[in-house]
Design brief:
single chain; 363 residues; alpha/beta; TIM Barrel; 8-stranded parallel β-barrel; 15 helices; globular; binds S-adenosylmethionine; binds iron/sulfur cluster
Length: 363
Amino acid sequence: MISINGILEQKAFTREDIITLLGLKGDNQQLLINKARKLTNDRIGNKVYFRGLIEYSNICVKNCFYCGIRKENREQHRYTMRDDEVLACARFAYKYDYGSIVIQTGERNDKDFVDKIEFLIKEIKNQSDNKLGITLSLGEQSYETYKRWFEAGAHRYLLRIETSNRDLYQRYHPSNEEHSFDKRIEALNMIKQAGYQLGTGVMIGLPGQSIEDLADDILFLKGFDVDMVGMGPYIEHEHTPMYLDPDLTLTKEERFDLSLNMIATLRLVMPDINMAATTAMQAIDPAGREKAIMAGANIVMPNLTPVKYRESYMLYEGKPCLDEDASKCTSCLIMRIKSTGSEVALGEWGDSMHFLNSQISDS
Ligand code: SAM
Ligand code: SF4
């Protein structure tokens, strides 16, 4: 039988190899993590880039079974930030040299919303002299909408596939046209076609999800040739249909560990993509983001949402930093990232090397 070190030295990985890597624990897991970090440094460098996160609104027309801000959670107070609040967050990101922001919301497709996002993108670009990069995470939209927002100045888009297993996808979503797996795949294709750097990802440790499913997720991300990945543990929320699902077999700590293995293994499979150290990792372990960086992540998304809205953007229980003011967080975060041996890249967009490489090979 081939040793773990033998697998780690390979340049290409079979499904069986990936399943083996995802199951590693103890010293063998550490070997995987060390290898992934070294490969990150060798291929894309040891810089960590910031994306200041603006959770613009928690109004959502959808009903994903796992999500705390799903439309039918009537317990949830709803909000939308005022324009001046959004622009102040973007100014903060610019002033503190974050390089980029992410605008994230529940999903809406109505004209007022589409127009408003276009307006905000243009204003943010204007007020930052075109210097602030803008990533969007606004769900499934029409091609025209993706294109409009791209032309307004956004250049990266995050839309998670959530799970690449069609049956599981249906299990975690209502069975209707608005929540169809095919529509999600079509949306990912449209995002690419509109010109964005494409980011997607999955939740890890979902009820009924196996290691084999996660290995297939990694192969899906590779096959889809994505530029960026954000993935992290699934965490329960009391007011969702998936709460207390008997098929949720992994503890939060096990989901966290599996997430580290997913990040490290994906780094071996796709060495030049951007990968986020997600908030859900930090929700389970206060040092979760740093541990994700040590395993090969290179993006951190500090939360810039005004504190008064944070409690209302509660996707899952235990979401961190509910009362931390962004201005107090920055220097502390920089110190924490430096403690991992990484450098904080200020004032840079930090575009996906995978995307930039593909542009060179296409031209
Ligand atoms: N509405 C947009 C969408 O769905 O793409 C963007 C916002 S949505 C809240 C962002 C991500 O939150 C989803 O893609 C999902 O993976 C994650 N999320 C939602 N509920 C979660 C939960 N209970 N545990 C972990 N992640 C969750
Ligand atoms: Fe809405 Fe996104 Fe939550 Fe689904 S995951 S309910 S689309 S906010």
